[in-house]
């Protein structure tokens, strides 16, 4: 047993240097998994050209990572409860570094996609437990600050991604984008070994059948709908969708009535938790409409270089970083329904203004619109994640942590799939239409968030089926 395993958090979080060091371990681990996603996104046109893939085909470099993460998040969140979140985080770090080496050595789309899938599985080990670790590191009264700091790290990874991608591509070949994970991964592993708290594990076996059904349902549905969006073999697409639907039906039947289900039906039955999940999912669908299509818009339509493209996208995460310190404190004081809804409205406005860009826009015209959308997204995330995390009883923190990442990654995966569909169907207008769809989806997420105010009022009158606002995050 390592020294880290002896660090047990007190009843209400860690304090002082112990909290700071433990959060550093979480931050470095999360940064590793997010940084590579952002880097691959910006470098996608370059990678596609080098491995001789079309724009729509190359999105599988993103989708492979996302799908592997989505299908494994819930089983891994359950596994984290069984073996300990800190131990699973360290396993994820090892897998991620090994997969990064394989990505750097890939020469075909298939090789790169498979390596990215392994990378996604390692990232899922980290992301399935990171919110659970934050819940045990921070006292409940200030947990919003911990969640905001976690969001700031994610945004910093996205911010650094374009800059690092631009810098590396200006002097080296794209495989070096994956090799930079090695020193960061080694540092994250060392700090996690020293500082992460030991959270008591649940003495129960993982339900292997439920894990298989979870992977089968998410995987088959994602691949089936992706093939359908490309009009790629209607019969095979329909078969995969049918298999996914059957697996999901079987999973729900198997999990119904369980006290600790892998698919958190008990949590999704709570209005506040369910609304937060849906808000998060739609918010990330909207963000991927923007994030994936924008590099192609900047390079193909607005004739910016790869370096300029990376720099122009950077205001999005920088704005998230800028608002995070303030949002963390606000999230502990005001309802998520209001803060998240307002943030999503700002994001929708930013996307709409990008859609309405004049002909021949300057870099400043583009940058301030992207920054506005990013600031709104930074306001939306921490309160909504807090609502999910505190919407679950302490004994279900692992599942709540997993669902935070599921909402994000499933939203990003569906967003990437929809972008591929728009690219395949809409031709030269695809890039502009993606921005319009991004705005509409963000506005839809805002409406879902604001709708929680009605249920919050019902809760005050004792008529809701959820739990009080301070727990369900309404």
From TrEMBL:
Claim: Endoplasmic reticulum is one of the keywords in the record: no
Record carries keyword Membrane: yes
Keywords assigned: Membrane, Transmembrane, Transmembrane helix, Transport
Transmembrane segments: 21-39, 59-79, 91-111, 117-135, 147-168, 174-196, 208-228, 234-252, 273-294, 306-327, 334-354, 405-424, 430-450
Location in or out of the cell: Membrane
Major location (coarse): membrane
Membrane-related topology note: Multi-pass membrane protein
SUPFAM superfamilies: MFS general substrate transporter
Residue ranges annotated for the Major facilitator superfamily (MFS) profile domain, each copy included: 22-456
A Pfam cross-reference name: MFS_1
PROSITE patterns hit by this protein: MFS
Name of the molecule in the record: MFS transporter
Protein's organism: Endosaccharibacter trunci
